[in-house]
Specification:
The protein has 422 residues and is mainly alpha-helical. Helices cover 76% and strands 0% of the residues.
Length: 422
């Protein structure tokens, strides 16, 4: 997921052609008059916020067949519950970044978590699929806002020497959502009802909103981003390549991953009760992949992505071939999680390296592209699943991962300073 760093950036975007590198951005100092304990509690609260939005966004993955059955829609149509928040988040991220530029970050995050709680409650009570989609629109607004501002707050809550550790804690919410959030939601849906899973997330989101209101100090905005800065970044060749690669890879991933439950049921014959366990294994592997990729991405993000692409394509393309047994499906899901766990940190690092003079605007653009890819992937997967069957989504996802790899190989070295992924 996305990182909106609260660095001071120029008010305009540099024009095409080589430009002198900007001076290193300074890390905002922590808000004064805040005790160390309260500062770290605030960091943890923000991490719970990222956990909540990512879990809510991904929750339909493990509940897809149950939602479709209850609301009398196909698996492909039920996949719109993933598509809609992705599209809305893509639009909301840059608009909210500009719209709330002058507001206290404590107020903004608290309000967004309250909106997430309301959206989850509406989903739990939805009498039909249109109401569920309305709830997912509200989820998209919350995702776009939280993704755009949450990570940058860690840098303002603790001393500079602890900023890296605090940021890692905030981002751990994303990884833990895969390990615990989605599998737990799937298990609740299997044991009780899919509506219960959304109800639990409503309660958790409300609790997080309260924790943010209590622990966060006043956090006045440090800068404003002008909306016209964002499209201007497309003049940067390296950034265009990074964003195109991200679009291809993430679209392919969600084309396949959104429909992993029906694939596991149809291809490997996995029983319903085992789905949550397999998703747990995927999530644990994802945490490992996140830290492994994070250790190398800052040195050479493009090379790290090449490894990720190869592993992802291998896992997705082999599911229809060797995933017919529980052991084979488990091994491929672990490989898949290991690879995809490093996508967010690596692709975002590449994006920030590609636009060092306009990091906030580049981050907002990255959030938009990432969420467009989530929406496109879920939508494309739905059409493929309904037209050619669940197995075909794996071929589609693997093919897009190969295209992403080719995009990096052919265009990844273009632009100034292409060495070492910079």
């Amino acid at each position: 997921m996305s990182n909106r760093t609260e660095f001071t950036t120029p008010t305009g975007v540099s024009g095409p052609g080589p430009q002198p590198p900007p001076p290193p951005p300074s890390i905002p100092t922590p808000t004064p008059h805040t005790s160390p304990l309260r500062s770290w509690l605030a960091v943890v609260a923000v991490a719970f916020g990222t956990f909540s939005v990512v879990t809510t966004e991904m929750l339909p993955v493990g509940l897809l067949t149950s939602i479709g059955s209850t609301l009398d829609v196909s698996d492909g149509t039920a996949g719109l519950a993933m598509t809609v928040p992705g599209i809305v988040a893509a639009v909301a991220a840059p608009l909210l970044t500009v719209g709330v530029a002058g507001l206290d970050r404590r107020l903004v995050l608290t309000a967004l978590m309250g909106l997430l709680a309301a959206a989850n409650l509406l989903a739990a009570l939805a009498p039909g699929f249109p109401v569920l989609l309305t709830a997912r629109v509200l989820v998209g607004v919350s995702i776009g806002g939280v993704w755009s501002i949450a990570a940058g707050l860690a840098l303002r809550l603790v001393p500079e020497k602890s900023a890296g550790h605090a940021t890692a804690i905030v981002f751990s919410g994303i990884a833990v959502a895969s390990v615990l959030g989605v599998p737990a939601g799937t298990l609740i849906g299997d044991l009780i009802d899919w509506r219960a899973a959304f109800a639990v997330m409503a309660v958790l989101s409300l609790a997080v909103a309260a924790a943010l209101a209590i622990t966060l100090p006043r956090l006045p905005a440090t800068e404003a981003i002008r909306l016209r800065e964002v499209p201007g970044l497309f003049r940067e060749v390296r950034l265009r390549v990074a964003l195109t690669t991200t679009l291809l890879l993430v679209t392919g991933h969600f084309c396949a991953y959104t429909y992993i439950r029906p694939v596991l049921e149809d291809v490997a014959g996995v029983r319903t009760g085992l789905i949550s366990g397999l998703l747990l294994a995927y999530g644990v592997a994802g945490i490992a992949g996140n830290f492994l990729a994070g250790a190398t991405a800052h040195r050479d993000p493009r090379r790290t992505l090449v490894v990720i692409f190869i592993l992802l394509a291998t896992a997705e393309l082999l599911v229809p071939v060797t995933g017919g047994s529980l052991a084979g499906a488990t091994a491929l899901l672990v490989l898949w999680g290991l690879a995809y766990g490093g996508v967010s940190v690596t692709s975002q690092t590449w994006v920030l390296h590609a636009a060092p003079a306009a990091r906030e605007a580049a981050s907002a653009l990255f959030v938009g592209v990432f969420n467009v890819a989530i929406a496109l992937g879920a939508l494309l997967g739905g059409r493929v699943a309904d037209g050619a069957g669940p197995t075909a989504v794996m071929w589609c996802g693997g093919a897009l991962a190969v295209l992403a790899l080719l995009n990096v190989a052919v265009f990844g070295g273009r632009g100034r300073g292409s060495g070492r992924g910079r």
